[in-house]
Amino acid sequence: MELLHLKSLDLKDKKVFIRCDFNVPMDEFGNISDDRRIRSAVTTINYCLDQDCAVILASHLGRPQGQMIEKYSLAPVARRLQQLLKRHVELASDVVGKDAMKRTKELPRHEVLLLENLRYEAGETTNDEKLSKKLASMAEFYINDAFGVSHRAHSSVYGITKFFDDSHKAAGFLLEREINFFAKLINDPVRPFAAIVGGSKVSGKLEALVNLLPKVDKIFIGGGMAFTFLKQMGYNIGASLVEDDLLEEAQKIMDEAKKLGVKFYLPVDVIAAEKFAANAVSKIVTAQEIPDNWMGLDIGPATVRLYREGLNDVQTILWNGPMGVYEMDKFARGSSKIAHYVADSYATTVVGGGDTADLVQRIGVDEEISFISTGGGASLELLEGKVLPGVEPLLIKER
Ligand code: AMP
């Protein structure tokens, strides 16, 4: 599986369209809390500028669902990009409207133009052909460097590729690095291989869990998703997050783990709170004793110790999803302790997902992680062995 290389394109003096993933996390004041995704895109952008290109950048941010909502404007991204590139970055006021079409047409070489949030257009997520065509008409070359969204068959990721032949499209450096890294991780992991999986819902990660089972030696579950498993095991989980329609699936996963000899770890204690709030009264309780109407919002200290012991002998760790509601200090300790442990480990450590990457950066251990992926969902789908829809059109076809 080889990708169309950016360096094979004849870009000299041309106009290029780069699909980036600038979907960065923001804090409560609207500041960018982790700009890794923006920093990671700089290599490809600078390469194109070095080739004397005019550069059009496009990304989504959040879920504005086809509405022009100011909160989701890419203006803060344009400002950060400007600092990182040390050059002026224009921001169009729309995506494929009058302003964007005019500016892309007139864009001179060595200039960078960022389109407004792609998801201001409802057609982006429905892979609308008209939108793909308009976006494609802006440039002579298409480059996908948006690993984090390459598992989505969206207009700017998938539909657009058919308007460019193989000598006019390629994977950016970030996309290529991510794909190559995960290919190695799937085909040749150093064992024992452990996955730490957290986050809010089982539903988002169900398929990934099922597909990870035959590949890993141990799985450690945290976050809100743990409670669906605990409920299925007969525990009273109070008012914790649960997906009742997935109880049976949860049982199947636990059965399959047993069959395959995969060690399946669940929290043995949790930090329970009276309500979902940063100032809620909270206490440490065992998984067996979550009071009625209380909700588990983090893993407890005994779970942290247990998980550390289980992780002691592993050689490869993949971590996707926080262990608790890490955005609130009170419920961030479990994630923070696991982050420190993973960072200190001599194993190859891989962190995937916007939230988990944000978390390790907030805690300040990001430099100690072997590889931080810019895509959570995308990396999980790669581990499932899938070819991502945004990547498939960029593969060099066997002759
Ligand atoms: P995901 O997008 O599925 O990776 O989930 C990340 C989110 O899960 C974060 O915003 C966390 O606040 C949230 N989360 C983690 N643990 C819990 C929990 N025990 N209850 C509710 N939400 C949680």
List keywords for this structure.
399 residues; alpha/beta; Rossmann fold; six-stranded parallel β-sheet; 12 helices; 16% strand; binds adenosine monophosphate
Low-confidence stretches: none
H and E string? EHEHEHEHEEHEHEHHEEEEHEHEHEH
**Global shape:** globular
* CATH superfamily annotation of the largest domain: Phosphoglycerate kinase, N-terminal domain
- Tell me what the CATH architecture of the largest domain is: 3-Layer(aba) Sandwich
Instruction: Output mean pLDDT.
Output: 95
Largest sheet: 6 strands, parallel
Number of strands: 15
Q: What this model shows, in words?
A:
The protein is α/β, with parallel strands linked by helices and 399 residues long. It has 12 helices and 15 strands. The strands form 3 sheets. Strands 3-4-2-1-5-6 form a 6-stranded parallel sheet. The protein has a 6-stranded parallel sheet with strand order 9-8-7-13-14-15, sandwiched between helices. Helix 1 (36-50) crosses helix 2, helix 7 packs across helix 8 and helix 9 (301-311) packs parallel to helix 10. The chain has helices at 36-50, 75-85, 98-106, 129-136, 173-187, 206-212, 226-232, 247-260, 301-311, 333-344, 354-363, 376-383, and strands spanning 15-19, 54-58, 89-91, 112-114, 141-144, 169-171, 193-197, 218-221, 263-265, 269-273, 282-286, 295-299, 316-320, 348-352, 371-372. Residues 199-201, 204, 223-224, 241, 296-297, 321-322, 324-325, 327, 353, 355 line the site of adenosine monophosphate (AMP).
Quick summary of this structure?
With 399 residues, this protein is an alpha/beta fold. The protein has helices spanning 36-50, 75-85, 98-106, 129-136, 173-187, 206-212, 226-232, 247-260, 301-311, 333-344, 354-363, 376-383; strands at 15-19, 54-58, 89-91, 112-114, 141-144, 169-171, 193-197, 218-221, 263-265, 269-273, 282-286, 295-299, 316-320, 348-352, 371-372.
